[in-house]
Specification:
The complex is a heterodimer. Chain A is of the alpha+beta class. In chain A, 35% of the residues lie in helices and 18% in strands. In chain A, a hairpin with a 4-residue loop joins strand 5 (132-136) and strand 6 (141-144). Chain A is globular and about 70 Å long. Chain A starts with 11 loop residues before the first helix and ends in a 33-residue tail after the last helix. Chain B is globular. The chains are: A alpha+beta, B alpha+beta. Chains A and B meet through strand 9, helix 9, helix 10, helix 12 and helix 18 of A and strand 7, helix 5, strand 9, helix 7 and helix 9 of B.
Chain lengths: 513, 310
């Protein structure tokens, strides 16, 4: 998807999803078969899997050199599409025999370059492992393969009255395996917790090709919490081949409110007020003036275009408590200067309000063709202070910034919006990004709330952690992968260069938060 | 972080030093979990005190040696609590090191999800920070999860940041001779459902109006108000929630946490098999974090469920 492509009525998630499907269904042509046959690595993989599930054509290698991040410069060796854990083991063993690293990959929606391959590794795509293996209401878990799409899982659980709680905005196209790798969040993790809280057991192929179960369906699995260590390790400690996810009961009642403020300070004070009052909404999202105007022009949801900030708040649970919480949130909002509080009257209006939030990133194309999205977390009581700094940083670098983010847990997503054709703009985007990261850390925050470190942020790791801290993280990683076979070069800062975070010639469409 | 708290952390690290077998003593409420400290192990105390409770962040920074009673008193002043549960003199660090869940896990989740940041002393005597102080954080490797339940064998907890929760406005126990699974299906996210083979107990928590409504449902199913949970037998078993009925021991009392899979039994849990590859990972982790084996020698996370009596 070229940047600068005019926006249309299609939502970005759907556009990117169709792109992803096209990749998966790439026909295997005789010409590519002939090329493949000469390479011993590819031959071995084809023998172990099937010829049409091992791709090393030039086009495939180019496609799989990227993910949804801005990072270019990756180099893909060969792409495999195993269908079973045994085939994943074969991929890892064959890669090992040929001295190649292994890069696990789900749908490629990651925003930090975690799936960008370096040095021509074997890329193992889980997109052909899409079975929901079991739904066990008595155990309260479903076993799924890693390639199951997040939203497909929730839809499959719907008849049972359950859902999978992590709901990243990419949920129509991201995989549950990818969620595990990145410990993904989403708007509703405010009340329900991120992926780690929803995964009880994992089957994992380690870098030596062995298959191991970590964690368990029982409450106290034996030994250390290796499951917890694996979740969020960005594919650097193994490839997950089956996942036991917790079933979350669907709430009997839900209410969604849109609060309209004349200042971001009032909106932020409302966020703190809600949390301090002992209310934990299911979701608590903020959009600033710039993004609200853009979104409204895109989805026509009735967002106030003259607001300095809006809050989208959702409460769920039993009907009585939901009604009470909604009333209290409205009162807290009005006490903090809310000009208007709109309560969605029905599911259709709820869906429309959420559509505005979840498609915000597609709407930006109306303004400028490119954006660079940041992901940091700050203490929620410092929202105003850090937002003011973000605006000042953008102004100093002559950039447009928009903010649409998970305010309830302090997870900022400043979008630097620009036109890559403008000379020198990329340097300014990167300088501003580094300053936003520094401002977040200075406020007592952390580097990433849900997108992960990948290649993008490893250079900032030493700003948050001491050398000793990073050494301990590396000890964990090396205990799982002593030879450094799994997704090398990611997460921890290294001297090796892989991927060019500075080179932003284009930004993939359909990048979500 | 306040200056006195930082000073006591540094003193804690200096006391641990870099040589000789060492363990932290807390409230000794789970002292024999996974083994007793080997002879000659030097015992130290972790820093005590609530460093900072930030109600609007829903976090608290607390010394690992602080008792649950002191922590909960401090949090209650602002209407909050944590998922940490246990005897009042149990320490924060002890509950984390043993990953000992309370009976409200069905609703509030396990202890392991509560730890946001850990400042611990390594086997080399260095002060290490794992995780971060915010409620949401995916920066780097999740060492916090590894530390919870590690029995102090990878490093010694000095100070932690925990996620807090609103203290529920209302709480009510009911009990009756009803099928626990059928009762659970009627209710939305009860805090605890216990079953001893005959009687079912349920804990409802939340808004008054919600607790009233759910209590009415429970009464309709044949339950009546109860003063509290039954006394729990001493030994804890861990089984798949769906296997609670089959897994119950034949002898002695057994109270099951329905939907969780914890069994509280008179008889000790049978030994559990450990997968060879899981054992190898444990050995590698121990070698990586504590190459000389000085942190809590005698204790083994693979035997965490086995209680040794002193």
């Amino acid at each position: 998807m070229q940047s600068g492509e005019p926006s249309d009525e299609t939502y970005p998630v759907q556009r990117a999803f169709s792109r992803y499907v096209r990749i998966r269904r790439m026909p295997f042509t005789p010409r590519r078969r002939a090329r493949v046959a000469h390479d011993p690595l590819t031959s071995a993989l084809r023998t172990a899997l099937a010829p049409d599930r091992v791709h090393d054509g030039a086009l495939d290698r180019r496609l799989y050199a990227r993910d949804a991040s801005v990072i270019t410069g990756g180099r893909c060796g060969v792409v495999c599409f195993p269908q079973t854990a045994a085939e994943v083991q074969a991929c890892v063993r064959i890669a090992r025999e040929h001295g190649r690293a292994v890069v696990p990959r789900g749908a490629g929606t990651g925003l930090a370059g975690g799936a960008v391959p370096c040095d021509e590794p074997v890329v193992v795509s889980t997109t052909r492992m899409t079975r929901i293996l079991s739904v066990d209401e008595r155990d309260g878990v479903a076993w799924v393969e890693p390639g199951v799409l997040n939203l497909d899982l929730t839809r499959a659980l719907q008849p049972y009255g359950f859902h999978f709680a992590p709901d990243p905005s990419s949920q129509q196209s991201c995989t549950v395996g990818g969620n595990v790798a990145n410990n993904s969040g989403g708007p509703h993790c405010l009340a329900y917790g991120v992926t780690s809280a929803h995964v009880v057991a994992l089957d994992v192929v380690l870098g030596d090709g062995t298959l191991t179960r970590l964690g368990g369906v029982d409450p106290d699995p034996v030994g250390l919490d290796l499951r917890g260590a694996m979740v969020g390790s960005e594919g650097t400690m193994g490839i997950v081949t089956a996942i036991a996810v917790r079933l979350t009961p669907n709430p009997p009642a839900v209410r969604t409110l849109l609060l309209d403020f004349a200042s971001t300070a009032d909106a932020a004070a409302t966020v703190s007020g809600i949390i301090a009052a002992g209310i934990v909404p299911a979701a608590l999202e903020m959009m600033d003036a710039a993004i609200t105007r853009v979104v409204e022009a895109f989805v026509h949801a009735g967002y106030p275009t003259d607001a300095a900030a809006v809050l989208l708040v959702e409460v769920d649970g039993l009907p009585g408590g939901v009604a009470l919480d909604a009333e209290r949130i409205e009162a807290i909002g009005r006490a903090n200067g809310a000009r208007d509080v709109r309560v969605a009257a029905d599911d259709a209006e709820r869906a429309l309000l959420w559509k505005g939030r979840k498609t915000a990133f597609g709407a930006i194309a109306q303004v400028k063709p490119n954006y660079y999205l940041h992901d940091t977390v700050i203490p929620r009581t410092k929202l105003v202070e850090v937002l003011d700094q973000v605006y000042a940083i953008a102004a100093r670098h002559d950039l447009l910034v928009m903010n649409v983010f998970h305010a309830g847990d302090g997870n900022l997503h400043p979008l630097l919006v620009y036109d890559a054709r403008e000379p020198g703009v990329l340097e300014r985007v990167h300088a501003a990004g580094a300053e936003i990261v520094a401002a977040s850390l200075a406020a007592g925050g952390v580097l990433s709330g849900e997108h992960g470190i990948g290649l993008e942020k490893r250079r900032f790791m030493a700003q948050q952690f001491s050398a000793d801290d990073l050494d301990h993280q590396n000890r964990l990683r090396r205990a799982f992968d002593p030879d450094g076979r799994m997704n090398p070069g990611k997460v921890l800062p290294t001297g090796a260069s892989c991927g060019d975070v500075q080179h932003l010639d284009r930004v993939p469409a359909g990048a979500w938060v | 972080v306040t200056v006195p708290a930082e000073r006591s952390l540094v003193a804690f690290a200096e006391e641990i030093g870099a040589d000789g077998p060492v363990a932290v003593a807390g409230g000794r409420t789970k002292w024999g979990w996974g083994g007793l400290p080997a002879d000659g192990t030097r015992l130290v105390r972790a820093p005590v005190g609530v460093v900072a409770h930030q109600p609007a962040e829903m976090t608290v920074r607390v010394g690992a040696g602080t008792t649950l009673a002191e922590l909960d008193d401090a949090l209650a002043r602002n209407g909050q609590t944590t998922v940490l549960d246990g005897p009042p003199h149990a320490t924060v660090g002890g509950v984390l090191a043993t990953a000992a869940d309370g009976i409200r896990r069905l609703r509030v989740g396990p202890v392991r999800d509560a730890l946001l940041e850990a400042r611990y002393v390594s086997a080399e005597g260095r002060l290490i920070t794992a995780g971060g102080p915010t409620v949401k954080n995916v920066t780097g490797y999740d060492l916090c999860r590894l530390l919870v339940g590690s029995l102090g064998t990878l490093g010694l907890l000095g100070e932690v940041v925990l996620r807090t929760r609103p203290r529920p406005a209302a709480a009510r126990w009911l009990s009756g001779e009803v099928d626990p699974d059928e009762l659970r299906r009627l209710l939305y996210r009860p805090s605890c459902v216990l079953w001893d083979g005959t009687t079912t107990w349920v804990l409802l928590e939340g808004h008054d109006v919600d607790v009233d409504a759910q209590a009415a449902v429970a009464r309709g199913a044949g339950l009546a108000d109860a003063s509290g949970p039954p006394e729990l037998p001493p030994h804890r078993w861990s089984v798949a929630p769906g296997a609670v009925r089959e897994a119950r021991p034949r002898e002695g009392r057994c109270v099951a946490e329905i939907g969780v899979g914890a069994l509280h039994c008179d008889v000790a849990a049978p030994p559990r098999e450990v997968d060879e590859r899981v054992r190898t990972l444990h050995e590698r982790l121990k070698a990586a974090f504590d190459p000389t084996g000085r942190c809590n020698p005698g204790r083994d996370p693979l035997r965490r469920g086995v209680v040794t009596v002193a």
